[in-house]
Amino acid sequence: MHEATVVANIVDAVLEELKKYDVKKVNSVTLKIGDLTQLGTEQMQFAYEILTEGNILKGSELIIEAEPVVLKCDKCGYQGPAKTLDQGDYSGHQIPILSCPGCGGEVEILEGQSCCVKSMDIETGDE
Ligand SMILES: [Zn+2]
Prior knowledge:
With about 130 residues, this protein is α+β, with helices and mostly antiparallel strands. The chain has two domains: about 80 residues, hypothetical protein PF0899 fold; about 40 residues, no CATH class.
């Protein structure tokens, strides 16, 4: 399960970061996850619940913000979303086509590959 590995790395990084503060409670952790990562939101939520059992993140909410794919074409100057191939199942996942929707040329991927912590909502002892 790819999601579990990704979430384990994120939880480790968040716990490391939280050591810098006098954290009383963590309300939520917000992630930015690019559409190109093809990570399942439900699987990530499930992994998060298990991986935060027994540490300060227990009970906090995992908020996942999707980052849409943005492509850039040097040939024709197109910049915008990718066309997608419908996967045909009912998962709601769509596979982006990584060539220019305008001219079919090679594109540079500007956005959609993120997999990072965007923000954390914590309560510290100072308040
Ligand atoms: Zn183009």
